[in-house]
Amino acid sequence: MTQLVLTAIGEDREGLVSALSRVVEDQGGNWLDSQFAQLAGTFAGIVLVEIPEERATALEASVAELLAEVGWSIEVTRAPEGGSAHGAIPGEAASPSAEPLRVRLVGQDRPGMVRQISRALAEQGVSIDSFRSWTTDTPEGGGVLFEAEALVRVPESLGEDAVRDALEPLANELMVDLDLEPAEA
After folding, report:
1. By the 8 A CB rule, do 45 and 55 touch?
2. Per-residue pLDDT for 21 more than 60?
């Protein structure tokens, strides 16, 4: 068996996930994990599929044909050997000893916030498994709040306190509220 990662993006249309899952099943594949999101009329998804090695090329062709019919772009890559459906810290196998942590922040919107926070996490060796951000109007009006939530994996050698110590000065500089809490593995 081999694992393929299918990455697709295109104009949001009804029934695309259903059509994609049908093609995977028709080719003898097993849908292991996926994430999809819609933003500003564009729909994007990433799917991890397991399939017999001899069917992988046929699945790639079938998926490409389906998505070309609907005007989507797709990339199919082979998942790294020994990977997992839930990510791993670079340089380590997917490890149950990597501590999952949820990071939330809220503050006045300004350019560069994502870059600064993600850089601080990367400098600590923290891997981002998922990241979502959005803006909302302030309750008082006249401003925009930036909100973000990330699920990260902290190396066992580091721990939550070290991540907090690294992020708190930056949160103060950016004037954002920062919340870190253990997440389910």
Report:
1. no
2. yes
Strand residue runs (E) in 12-41: 30-39
Give the burial class of 6: count Cβ atoms within 10 A of its Cβ; 0-12 exposed, 13-18 middle, 19 or more buried: buried
Q: In what order do the strands lie in the sheet with 176-182?
A: 127-137, 144-154, 99-108, 176-182
- Residue 84 is predicted with a pLDDT of 54
List the strands of the sheet with 42-51, edge to edge. Answer: 30-39, 42-51, 2-11, 73-78
Within the chain, which residue ranges are assigned CATH 3.30.70.260? 2-78, 99-182
Superfamily of domain 99-182: ACT domain (3.30.70.260)
pTM over 0.90: no
Fold classified for 2-78: Alpha-Beta Plaits (3.30.70)
How far apart are alpha carbons 169 and 160 in whole angstroms? Answer: 15
Q: What are phi and psi of 86, to 5 degrees?
A: -120, 15
Contact 127, 89 (CB under 8 A): yes
C-alpha 41: how far from its chain's center?
Answer: 19
